[in-house]
Backbone:
C-alpha cells in the first residue's frame, strides 16, 4: 500500500488507537467507495476503537435532525439516545449483517464486520437533513455496505445486495406489523358495544 494512503500520524499519537488524520482520510476513501479501503479497515485492529468513535460522532450529528424544530430538547437526552442507538446499531446491526453474510458464504469475522460497519455508519450524518435525511442515510449506508461486503466477506455484488436488503425488508415488515397491531388495539375499543 502506498505511504500516502496509510495516513500520517499528525494529530494522533504514534501507535495510539485513534489517529484522527487516518480516520478522516479513511472516511474520505469510504465515501468515495475506493477499492481496498474496507479490507484495510477490516484488517486493522486499531480500527475497532476508531469505528466506535465514528459511529458515536455520526449518531450525535444525525440525532440532531429530529430535534431541530419545535419540541423539548435536552442535551443529556440527545447524547444518551444517540450513544445508545449508535452502540446498539453498531453491535447488533453488525451481528445481523454478519450472520446473513455467512449464510451466503461470507468469509469475514464478526470483528471485521464491526470495524467496517462503524466506518460506514458515517452516513448517519445525512439524517440531519430535514425530511429526506433519514432515507438518504439508509440508501447511502446500503450502497457503502454492499461494497464493504464484497471486499471483506468475499461476496458477489448480488449476494451483498441481498445481505443488505433482506434484514431491511424484515425490519420494515416488523414495523408495519407492529403498527397494524397497535392500530387494531386502538380501534378495538371503538367498536365495542
Residues:
Amino acid at each position: 500500500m502506498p505511504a500516502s494512503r496509510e495516513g500520517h500520524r499528525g494529530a494522533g499519537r504514534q501507535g495510539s488507537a485513534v489517529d484522527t488524520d487516518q480516520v478522516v482520510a479513511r472516511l474520505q476513501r469510504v465515501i468515495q467507495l475506493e477499492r481496498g479501503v474496507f479490507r484495510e479497515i477490516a484488517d486493522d485492529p486499531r480500527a475497532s476503537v476508531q469505528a466506535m468513535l465514528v459511529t458515536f460522532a455520526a449518531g450525535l450529528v444525525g440525532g440532531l435532525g429530529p430535534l431541530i424544530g419545535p419540541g423539548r430538547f435536552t442535551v443529556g437526552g440527545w447524547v444518551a439516545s444517540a450513544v445508545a442507538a449508535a452502540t446498539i446499531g453498531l453491535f447488533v446491526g453488525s451481528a445481523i449483517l454478519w450472520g446473513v453474510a455467512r449464510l451466503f458464504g461470507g468469509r469475514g469475522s464478526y470483528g471485521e464486520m464491526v470495524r467496517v460497519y462503524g466506518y460506514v455508519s458515517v452516513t448517519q450524518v445525512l439524517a440531519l437533513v430535514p425530511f429526506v435525511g433519514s432515507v438518504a442515510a439508509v440508501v447511502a449506508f446500503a450502497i457503502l455496505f454492499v461494497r464493504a461486503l464484497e471486499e471483506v466477506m468475499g461476496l458477489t455484488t448480488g449476494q451483498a445486495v441481498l445481505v443488505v436488503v433482506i434484514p431491511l425488508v424484515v425490519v420494515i415488515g416488523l414495523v408495519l406489523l407492529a403498527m397494524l397491531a397497535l392500530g387494531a388495539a386502538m380501534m378495538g375499543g371503538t367498536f365495542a358495544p
Summary: Residues 1-13 have pLDDT under 50 and may be disordered. Residues 17-187 form one domain.
